[in-house]
Design goal:
alpha+beta; four-stranded antiparallel beta sheet; 4 strands
Length: 68
């Protein structure tokens, strides 16, 4: 399963802040940000992914996140 999210994560520094949190939440999944995309896309690939948990995690850390 692949989920795609629109975010407002704009810098590598922000990704570094989120990295340990996403790694903990998505420990059996692959994830990455496409910073060249105008929607600052977060792609998550894995078997057991809960989109609401990902959106909540980003929101708790001050970021916008919407599943596309």
């Amino acid at each position: 399963m692949v989920l795609v999210f629109k975010t407002n994560v704009k810098s590598k520094r922000s990704i570094k802040k989120l990295e340990p949190l996403l790694d903990t939440l998505l420990f059996h999944s692959k994830w990455n940000f496409d910073m060249k995309d105008c929607d600052k896309i977060l792609r998550v690939e894995g078997k057991e992914i809960v989109s609401s948990q990902i959106a909540a995690l980003l929101a708790e850390n001050g970021f916008y996140c919407e599943e596309l």
